[in-house]
Amino acid sequence: MGFWPWARRPVPADARAVAYGRRTGPGAGRAPVFGWRLVNLPVAALAALARRALPSRWDLLAALLIFGLLVVLASASREVARPLSTLAVHPISLDPGHLPQYAARTTLRMLVAMVLSLLFTFTYATWAAKSRRAELLLIPLLDILQSVPILGFISITVVFFMSLAPGRILGAELAAIFAIFTSQAWNMAFSFYQSLRTVPTELQEAAANFGLSPWMRFWRLEVPFAMPQLIWNMMMSMSGGWFFVVASEAISVGDTTVALPGVGSYIALAIERRSLAAIGWAIGTMLIVILLYDQLLFRPLVAWADRFRFEQEAGVLPPTSWVLTTLRRSRLTIGIAAAFRFAAEIGGRTRMATPKRSRRQRSAGRSRRADLAWAVLVAVLAGGALWAVGSFLATGVTIGDLEVALLGGLATMARVFVLIALASVVWVPIGTAVGLRPGLARMVQPVAQFLAAFPANLVFPLAVAAIAMLQLNPNVWLSPLMILGTQWYILFNVIAGAAALPSELRDTARNLRIGGWLWWRKIGLPAVLPYYATGAITASGGSWNASIVAESVSWGDTSLTAFGLGSYIAEATAAGDLHRIVLGIAVMSAFVVIINRAFWRPLYRYAERKYRLM
User: Fold this and answer.
1) CB 116, CB 185: distance < 8 Å
2) Please, are residues 29 and 245 in contact by the beta-carbon 8 Å criterion?
3) Three-class secondary structure assignment of 3-66
4) What sign does the CA torsion over 108, 454, 182, 308 have?
5) In sequence order, what are the residues at sequence separation of 6 or more whose Cβ sits closer than 8 angstroms to the Cβ of residue 396?
6) How far apart are CA 42 and CA 354, in angstroms?
7) Which residues contact 119 (CB under 8 A, 6 or more apart)?
8) Do 241 and 452 form a contact (C-beta atoms < 8 A)?
9) Helix 150-164, helix 565-575: angle, nearest 10
10) Could you give the 3-state DSSP secondary structure of residue 329?
11) Rg of the chain, C-alpha, whole Å
12) pLDDT tens-digit profile of 567-595?
């Protein structure tokens, strides 16, 4: 099992024989002649060498894909070094002719954020999964980070990123990329952390018996095992970036307003001007972009990651991708992959384990003292952070503000609980059915990506018009907007969990005629519960985050507000009141951490301990 996408292409037998100085065809038994001449080479060998020397159609197609990608990235990034005043000279336009350029700019930001999210996932989640002491700090911190709304990140970091490139578009681009990163990274980190915690024991023992170094164990065992589930969560994270792309590109904090060219700014302007035609063009553009990165990115990744499934079901055709087939058959990409493989394996050669004194043989007293010292350090850091936040709030926040924030937090919490419960009832059965059918999963994948990427902002016109016309209560009927983008975390993780269900377990249940509720209670729910817990934790945190845009919506001059913590933070952000922004973020983080510690984490530990299949 190896973490490299393209296998070596087999060399034709005739060309191999020529390369090693052997004759083929008639006279193959004769002694080789020193110094080959072309007349001594068989026609078949010459043809084989000619075919390998000339570019094949796969080489041409791969080169077209690679250079086309480079051209798109170059054209989308050429304006980042220009002065910030350029944005005022060329403001956002609702002309559909600008949408291809806007889509390229948005896609580039999301791809850069995805690469940063992968780096964060491979480092942060790995450290948390492999170190018990680091886990005590990193996982609660991850709960806090995913609970911080994207407007909170923008409010605090926009000045910092703008100062990195004063007067340049680059500073605003960095702020937008970081905002998109915050909508992608936490979900992927939770997924990778959960996968590292559930690596089968027999695979770990095999890696130890082969004496794999930590570096090779990571790339040869742990990353391949986690890759199928991680790719599904990468899809969800990319779609989550679309959900918050409006807030990321149309930055408005107090007196600071920046509208970067992109689909998100286009949607924000269309909503402001109440242009249904422009919203229709934006939806069509999003659909095209999502289909493109489904074909060019995620479908090849799904087909490639199928080789890393822990068990393969007989009779089921593996997923295919024309892009992956092109890359595997092109000598150009094979050479590039071989170079990367060689560079990566230089520092990670397999070394046979030598008998050493195990860390487990250290005295229990020393370990307890180290754990105690680490716990004290974590407590001191947490206390220092709380003291700093409290000191800042004491200078500009009253008891009345705290009461409003707490009551708003309770109202938002009730909405989140009800919505997560409803989403679980709907998507757990559907996700399980899809995950158990690979063919159906391949058809559902692009549809689910589009629905997950559909920004709730585009539903606001219909929601505001319906609520205002029917005189409905915004405190109730704005709530569904919170779950529009986050319910898909549950669906994607349940699909990944059901797909990982061993085929022999399904065959056993079928032979024993186990069905109905008994199948769900003994097989279905236990199999997907660890994955569901991961998705529900992320969906819960995402719903809190989405409350910022869902509890305070507008369509032109019509605005509707639901009482809650999200609307409290949105109003404070619009007013540029930093003290109330920090208060709202602190209260929201406290709610999310307490809920995760009291409910979701115990549920996850229970599922991991009791229903681990391997």
Assistant:
1) yes
2) no
3) CCCCCCCCCCHHHHHHHCCCCCCCCCCCCCCCCCCHHHCCHHHHHHHHHHHCCCHHHHHHHHHH
4) negative
5) 578, 579, 580
6) 52
7) none
8) no
9) 30
10) helix
11) 28
12) 898 888 777 788 888 888 888 888 888 88
**Against a cut of 0.90, is the pTM above it?**
no
Backbone angles phi, psi at 259, to 5 degrees: -115, 100
pLDDT at 528: 87
Handedness of CA 139, 140, 146, 151 (dihedral sign): negative
Mean pLDDT of all residues belonging to the chain: 77
pLDDT given at position 362: 47
Give the confidence band of 401 by pLDDT, cuts at 50, 70, 90.
Answer: confident
Segment 403-441, tens digit of pLDDT = 999 999 999 999 999 999 999 999 999 989 888 887 787
Alpha carbons 169 and 85: distance in angstroms, whole number: 8
Cα 432 to Cα 216: distance, rounded to the nearest angstrom: 33
Percent of the chain with pLDDT over 70: 78
SS (H, E, C) 66-92: HHHHHHHHHHHHCCCCCECCHHHHCCC
Mean of pLDDT values over 389-395: 82
| CA-closest candidate to residue 44, choices 76, 21, 18 | 18
Q: What's the one-letter identity of residue 569?
A: I
d(CA 307, CA 316): 13
**DSSP string of 488-520, one letter each residue:** HHHHHHHHHHHHTS-HHHHHHHHHTT--HHHHI
Single out the residue of 560, 518, 531 nearest to residue 427, CA to CA: 531
Of the candidates 254, 114, 261, 98, the one whose C-alpha atom is nearest the C-alpha of residue 178 is: 114
Looking up tokens 């850069």 gives 112
Tens-place pLDDT, residues 42-71: 666 555 555 565 666 777 777 777 777 777
CA atoms of 80 and 67, how far apart (whole Å) = 21
- Give the confidence band of 14 by pLDDT, cuts at 50, 70, 90: very low
The backbone region for 187, taken as left when phi is positive above 0, alpha when psi lies in -120 to 50, beta otherwise, is: alpha
User: Residue 316: what are its φ and ψ, rounded to 5°?
Assistant: -105, 120
Amino acid at residue number 4 = W
The residue count for the chain? 614
What is the distance between the alpha carbons of residues 463 and 403, in angstroms, rounded to a whole number? Answer: 29
* Residue type at position 566: G
For the record, the structure tokens of 165 come out as: 């490139």
Burial of 243 (0-12, 13-18, 19+ CB in 10 A): buried
* Residue 287 contacts residue 103 (beta carbons within 8 Å): no
The stretches of 165-250 forming alpha helices (DSSP H) are: 169-182, 185-197, 201-209, 214-217, 223-243, 245-249
Say whether 356 sits in a helix, a strand or coil: coil
